[in-house]
Write a structure and sequence with these properties.
- The structure is a single chain.
- The chain is an alpha/beta fold.
- The chain has one domain.
- The chain has seven helices and five strands; from the N terminus they run βαβαβββααααα.
- It has a three-stranded parallel beta sheet with strand order 3-2-4, with helices on one face. The protein has a two-stranded antiparallel ribbon with strand order 1-5.
- The longest helix is centred in the C-terminal third of the chain and has 15 residues, at 116-130.
- The N and C termini lie far apart (39 Å).
């Protein structure tokens, strides 16, 4: 997930066959694979993986980071100091999350931060904490039950409730209708 202003987030999605939908509905365990690309290198991907794991744990997914452990799906996150990749991919679902700045070097200088890569990844962490990618994945995978459980969670904000209800409506989730 390269760094993106939420309002201009773009998604690519293919429609799934009934067999693919059935496979997606069975997802329980997610392998998180994070790659960080920074000019100077040495930026730890662990903090970004921790945020992704935290957000997915809220929806009761089991998270693994060791690729040798059993998992149903891989969530690949590519975090770049500068967006260097453009083009198509074999990935069926792609979402970009960016920071509010285009130039990490200039932004780091303005903030008097020593390392632009570390600064960019720190700002990306902040964006990931706010961005509702886990809810979007749960909806895309047809996991209305997880969204409904989150809706009933104590301390959930009004904005998240509205987002969940909107996603349930888009999913046309019968489970969300009152009996």
């Amino acid at each position: 997930m390269p760094s993106l202003i939420q309002s201009s987030a773009a998604a690519y999605r293919e429609y799934f066959t009934p067999e693919q939908k059935a496979q997606l509905e069975k997802i329980q365990t997610i392998l998180i694979d994070v790659t960080v690309i920074a000019d100077r290198g040495g930026v730890n991907a662990g903090a970004l993986a921790d945020i992704a794991a935290e957000r997915l744990n809220e929806l009761s997914y089991v998270i693994v980071r060791d690729p040798t452990r059993p998992h149903d799906v891989v969530l690949r996150m590519e975090c770049e100091q500068r967006k260097i990749w453009e083009g198509t991919t074999a990935i069926k679902w792609q979402k970009e999350v960016r920071t509010e700045f285009e130039d990490a070097v200039a932004a780091a200088q303005a903030a008097q931060a020593a390392d632009p890569g570390v600064y960019a990844m720190t700002k990306l962490q902040e964006a990931l904490r706010k961005y509702e990618f886990a809810l979007l994945l749960a909806a895309e995978w047809g996991h209305a039950d997880r969204l409904l459980a989150m809706l009933d969670s104590p301390g959930i904000s009004q904005a998240r409730k509205i987002k969940i209800m909107s996603l349930l409506g888009e999913m046309q989730a019968d489970e969300a209708l009152p009996n």
